[in-house]
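Appendix C. Worked example: HNH endonuclease
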Amino acid sequence: MTKTPRIPIPPEVRKYVYQRDNYQCRSCGKTATETSLNIDHIIPLAKGGSNDISNLQTLCQTCNQRKKHDLDPRFKRHFT
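Step 2, the predicted output written as C-alpha cells:
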C-alpha cells in the first residue's frame, strides 16, 4: 500500500468540513464551544487514504488522538 503524501488542508476546505459536520465531533458529538476540533482523515494517509474531501471529518482533539492512525469502525465515511 502506498502512503499518500501529506499536504496542508486549505482553510476553505477546513471551513467547509467544519460547516458540513455542524462544528461537531463525528465520534462523541462535542461542539466547537465545548472542545478543540480537528480535521481528520477517515482512512489515514499512512493506510492509503486520500486527501479528498470525502475522506475528511471533524473530530475533537480527544477522539482524534484516540483514533491515531488506526482504522476504527466507529470512524467511517458518512459522505461520498
